[in-house]
Amino acid sequence: MTWRPRGLRARLLVAFVLVTVLGAAAAAWSSAGSASRALVDSTQRRLTETVADQVAAVAPQLTYPPDQAALDRLRAAAGPNTLVTYRDLRSVDGADTGLVTEELRGAVRDRGRLVTQRIVTEDDTPWLLVGTPVVATSPDGARTPSGIEVYAVRDLSEVEERIDGLTESAIGTAALALPLAVLLALLAARGVLRPVRDLRDTARRLTAGDLGARSEPQGADELAELTVTVNEMAASLQASMATMSRMQADARRFAADVSHELRTPLATLTAVMEVLETAADGMDADANESARLAITETRRLVRLVEDLMEVSRFDAGTARPRVEDVDVAAAVRDCLRARGWLDRVELAAPAGIVALADRRRLDVIVANLVGNALRHGGPPVRVRVLADREQVWVEVTDGGPGLPEEVLPHVFDRFYKADAARTRTPGSGLGLAIALENARLHGGDLTAGNAEGGGARFVLRLPRHGEDA
Amino acid sequence: MRRIWLAVVLVLLAGCGVQPSGLADAGDAPTGVAPGVTLYFVDPDGRLVPQLRPTDRLGTVTEATSLLLTGVGSDSELHSEIAAGAPPRVVVTTEPGVIHLMVPLTIHDVTPLGIDQLVCTALGAHVQGGGSRSTRVRIDFVQPTRESDVRRTCPLIR
Question: Which chain A residues have a beta carbon less than 8 Å from that of B135?
Fold first, then answer.
């Protein structure tokens, strides 16, 4: 049994067919068996009675004690394939009388009654052996053996053929049940499999993110219970997901609100600080230093709030790039020049690489990457612009120690600081996150890694023909 | 597994054919051979006695009763109480349980013992030929008489 059916349908089918065939075969076998037994019995009785009647009919006319002629007459009366003996005399007809067994002869002699025996020869022919003594009855009814014995051999092949016919028709009837069994099995399989298939489809939709997917439970069986359970599971999952996303949205809205609310007082504060800055030179040394510190921190606070608002716009999905044809090399050069970094950065940018991009956002990204390299990495800081027909890459590398392995997965996380002790850096902690969002807004990507020489390496990839390219 | 299935199928198929059997009893053996026919006559004491007539075979009831009508023969001390001279021709018909003898005699040709002779001879031949001992005998005489309707049995064969 190396082969096993896979799938519920095949297994149900096989089980149904097996049960049906076994049942039908058992019923057919038992009915054919009893019918054939009855047939054999009646045939046997008829043959035996015929022999006995024929012997009885001719016996009163027989010379007794019999001579050979009398035995021949008796034998002729009993029909073909008969052996008649009386002491040393024998009368034989037919070749098959050799089938008479010693067992039968002994029984005939001992019992003094009609005895039958069925045998099957090696060529599968069934035979009926009938043996009987002829008894002499006195007028008062006492029976004594006369010494005459009659053995008749009768062929039962005809009965065998009729039994074979019975068997064949029984098998035929059983075979008729097969298509019915297959049909029933298919119906049952469909009844079982449809809910299962529904459940599978629902599970697939849930996996694909459609948390509203449900199956309609049918009936009240175990499958229906399973369906109900799966529905409950999906409902619970959906509820917790909804809660979570609501909390997330709340948190984002809070950040957005806070930064928005901070903007107005900060604007005022900035204006005050500018006045303070102009007046700072006239102060004494201590007051001057305090004023400078307040000015620096206020500017940092302004940048942090601006970054927070930018992040909020990304989170709310309201950030829209204003794309135009931009000469990437020129844009990068402008960015560096505006911040006075041109002399500290090695720029390798062939002119004429034009891409569809938002000039301001490209500037933000490049400024952040180069600023990070200058601040945290070591010289030399290199910026390279590469392009093929579809995409443009801006690669920023530095000569510093590079990014540690454990930091790499987190460099784009918000407020992630690689060095916990260095929290007082001028950055807001949002720069790389904003740069990544900007790259994605263009349909591009930003990846962090380490160059072969050991320094950190950031690669900005942008499609040249807009987001759909 | 395949072998088991094959064996099951073979057993099922084999169970349907004609099977060999042991010895089985099939009833009483046929009977009817006898060295002669038994006739009934009356001895000097007036008793019914059987006499074996060695005819080498049992023969039929007709033959037995016809033979009875021919008489006892000369060299015997037995005698018959059936009037001699009647033609030895008896017509025998058999119904279930009853043997009809149509004898060429009148009721005056036989004594009661003579009737017994006829009844016993007929019944004896019947029993020896395999018939039942409870069979009754009716004798039809050539002239109508009430005796013709009596169903008789032999005093010696019970």
Answer: none
B120 neighbourhood in chain A, CB within 8 Å: 139
A431: in domain: yes
Cα(A375)–Cα(A372) distance, rounded to whole angstroms? 5
CATH number, domain containing residue A306: 1.10.287.130
A14, A152: one domain:
yes
For chain B, the C-alpha Rg in angstroms (whole number) is: 25
- Give the range of the structural domain holding residue A234, as residue numbers without chain letter: 223-316
Answer yes or no: is A78 within a domain.
Answer: yes
d(CA A462, CA B60): 131
Which CATH number is A458's domain given?
Answer: 3.30.565.10
For A70, nearest residue in chain B (alpha carbons): B57
| Nearest-angstrom CA–CA distance, A438 and A371 | 16
Domain boundary pick from A144, A165, A186:
A165
Judge if ipTM > 0.85.
no
Query: Which of A2, A47, A63, A140 should be substituted to probe chain B, the one whose Cβ sees the most B Cβ atoms within 10 Å?
Result: A140
Contact: A167, B16; criterion CB under 8 Å: yes
Sole residue written with tokens 């040249």: A464
Dihedral sign, CA of A249, A251, A252, A254?
A: positive
Joined tokens for residue A337? 């020049």
Are A306 and A259 in a shared domain? yes
- A 76-105 residues inside an 8 A Cβ radius of B: 103-104
Three-class DSSP category at A161: helix
A279 and A331 co-located in one domain: no
Tell which of A165, A195, A212 closes a domain. A165
Whether A119 has its CB under 8 Å from any CB of chain B: the answer is: yes
- Regarding whether A300 and A246 lie in a shared domain, the answer is yes
Confirm whether A199 is domain-assigned: no
Whether B54 contacts chain A with CB within 8 A: no
Q: Is A350 exposed, middle or buried (0-12, 13-18, 19+ CB in 10 A)?
A: exposed
**Residue of A437, A288, A424 whose CA lies nearest to A361:** A437
Q: Which amino acid is at A400?
A: G
**Residue A198 within a domain:** no
Q: Which residues of A415-428 are buried (b: 16+ CB within 10 A; e: fewer)?
A: eeeeeeeeeeeebb
Strands (E), B29-133: 37-42, 48-53, 91-95, 98-102
Our count of domains for chain A comes to 3
Q: What is the pLDDT along chain A (469 residues), one digit of tens a residue?
A: 455 667 778 888 888 888 888 888 888 888 888 888 888 899 999 999 999 999 999 998 888 889 999 999 999 998 889 999 998 899 988 878 888 888 899 998 888 899 999 998 888 888 999 999 999 988 888 888 889 999 999 988 888 888 888 888 888 887 887 888 888 888 888 877 888 888 888 889 988 888 888 888 877 788 888 888 888 988 998 999 999 999 988 888 888 888 888 888 888 888 888 888 888 777 788 888 888 888 888 888 888 888 888 888 888 777 788 888 888 888 888 888 888 888 888 888 888 888 888 888 889 888 888 888 888 877 788 898 888 888 889 989 888 888 888 888 888 888 776 665 555 556 667 888 888 888 888 888 888 888 887 788 899 998 887 655 4
Q: Are residues A84 and A227 in the same domain?
A: no
* Same-domain pairing of A380 and A444: yes
The residue behind tokens 């004023």 is: A291
